[in-house]
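Data availability (excerpt). The following record was deposited with the supplementary files.
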Amino acid sequence: MALKVDLNKAFDRVEWDFLLDVLRKMGFGVLWYKWIHACLTTYELEFIVNEDSIGVINPQRGLRQGDPISPYLFIIVADVLSRQISKAMALGSLSGIKMDRACLVVSHILFADDFLFLLKASHADCSAITRILDSYCQVLDTKMGSFHR
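Predicted structure:
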């Protein structure tokens, strides 16, 4: 079976603490950690109406669209999902598919906030991928925007 999933506002909902924790666990050095922390936390949004500033807020989560580093940071967040799926494959909870006998097993393809899962059409695989996606969405505080089979 093939499942295409799109996450609602995935870039906007990335929790900074989660991202920074992932960076630490991936072995990023202290200097990189500080740089990325600074990129995330040292900006503000100003609201302007009729050329007058009506207020400023400091965001507490999310990745800025248009910031050159944001796609790379999102890839790091998406890698968490990829690793969860790979772990489930290794444990036998999920079964990917082979396009040909000589090919490797493929279970998922990630592109920005769109995910394509290629799994065995079984109740066990449906249950496993649902658990993994629910867990991932809970961490990101998001929901699946569209879910196509």
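Summary of structural features: The first helix runs from residue 16 to 25.
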